[in-house]
Amino acid sequence: MVTLLICENDVEAHLMKGTLESEGIHAYIANEYLNTIIPGYTNIGGIGMKLMVDDADIEKAKVILTAYFPRLTPGVKLVCPNCGSEELTVGHNNDSVQKIAFGVLSLITATPMNNIRGELQCTQCGKIF
Question: What is the 3-state secondary structure (H, E, C) of 20-78?
């Protein structure tokens, strides 16, 4: 297993682990209970909560986490699997009426919009993945 990233807290680590496991990737959190014992000091010296995946799943895991948590996975570049372009859009679709309806529905149901996974679409070739 290799370290994918170091998480700042247990909530972040478990959200990412659950996301990866829901996509079929086995994930493990190293130093999981260290944050409970010495909270606030776990990121000193790189001993924080490490989200680990199998060597063979590292690239797929990066793509999945970047799609779900773009602000928490800086430095990971997504590319289109079809043409290799980095020009991607994230969202459910390009229909603004449906986006507005989805936004209103998320407000009514108190569901944050950024927790619901959208699709990635390449602006060069149009592939949706």
Answer: HHHCCCCEEEECCCHHHHCCCCCCHHHCCEEEEECHHHHHHHHHHHHHHCCCCCCCCCC
Q: Which domain holds residue 125?
A: 78-129
Per-residue pLDDT tens over the stretch 66-108: 888 766 665 556 677 788 887 777 654 555 676 677 777 777 8
Does residue 120 form part of some domain? Answer: yes
Residues 19 and 43 in one domain: yes
Tally the domains of the chain. 2
Instruction: Please give the Cα distance from 95 to 91 (Å, whole number).
Output: 10
Distance between CA atoms of 73 and 118, rounded to whole angstroms? Answer: 17
Q: Could you tell me the pTM of the whole model?
A: 0.55
Residues 87 and 115 in one domain: yes
Contact 80, 127 (CB under 8 A): yes
Please choose, from the candidates 13, 25, 33, the residue with its C-alpha nearest in 3D space to the C-alpha of residue 53: 25
